[in-house]
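INFO  loader      accepted 1 record
INFO  loader      residues=75
INFO  predictor   begin
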Amino acid sequence: MWNRISKILDHEMKVSEFLGALILIGIPYGIVGIIWTLTHTSHLSDIDNPVDQVISFLGSIVCWPVLTFSNVTMT
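INFO  predictor   done
INFO  writer      dumping tokens
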């Protein structure tokens, strides 16, 4: 078993392969984050400053896994 893990970890990746893997992971993460944020926008109405609303909206897209488990609104 350790040989398999060592073999996987010893695999060398090119920068383009690494970026491709990040993109393949990032696209679904971002889509789910946007959908979650669009369905949970009640906290944005309490914020008066439009810049703070944008930052809170973008922050909730990035932090959606934490927000789903802790039920925290970012203000």
